[in-house]
Structure prediction request, 328 residues.
Amino acid sequence: MKTKLWMLGMAVAALTSCTQSEVVDIPESRVIGFDSHVDKTTRAITPISGVGLADNDLKMFYVYGYENDSLYFNGTTVEYDGSKFTYSPHKQWKAAKNYHFAAYSNGNSTCTNVVYNKITGGSQLVISDYTVGDNDLMAAIVDSIPINAGASNTPEHVDLTFEHMLCVITLSLTNGGTNYLQIGDITVKGVKTNTCTYRINNGAKTCNWSTGTPEENAYTFAGTGGNAYIEPAGRHVASLFFIPQSTDINITIPVSTYTKSGNEYTLSTAENKNTTLKLLEYGVTSSWQNGKHYVYNGTLAGTVHYIHFDATVSGWGTPVNNTLVFSD
Prediction:
């Protein structure tokens, strides 16, 4: 049987660049494989439309796993090769062993501080010192997989359902005036929490972000840019990935108002509009939750300060009476 597998491996290697030859001594039914999809019930600004079909699709993730009490996978890179997820060198299921698995992907990139460990009733993945950016941080974790003494129940693959660890905040700003607006970059300060703990305990998954030091200038919603204007009734929409917060966030929106004559825009006023991203959901005070998309709608109306003239004429004052003296 080994000879047949070896010959098959040589034939496949001659036709493709696959790494099948690295696992020819492992029965195919024993190879640990991974399949992945993103939970359809979650919402994000860059929804996954299908594995490998768009730039924002999940193409790479990093796997952690225990075999009994030994760390079996430790950040192993798993990549999409156009038809399936693969890694190298392959590892195999073993009889009478118990397996735990978790994985993450930070926009198809790695994170710096990641620890995976077993806990009572399951396991947990901890991502520390996380700084949010343009990446959609996702993670997957599964219940333990026991393999029987005959290894006859080895699964075809480990099915990883990725959930979003971040939430998405969208500002939708409408020009409610009769002039033209430009919006500057909106900087968000005082954002807290930076350590994500994603765990499965007796089948229940939870995502918790612990409170860290508030970050200054950590988030910036993009403005309209120097050559773009919001026309009356027009909108500017900007979105960001956010670490879930549990306190209201104050923001300041720089707004410049322009008048238009022909193709010329003339700056009238530049001012700051202050507002608060209140943590409300369905009218109830809450905290932002991972995997949800929150939209904040607002209307801006810039003020134009035209130069006007008014005129008054001073009075002639109180008449001064004088006596005329006539000569003879």
Remarks:
- The longest helix spans residues 2-15.
- Confidence is low (pLDDT under 50) at residues 1-26, 41-45.
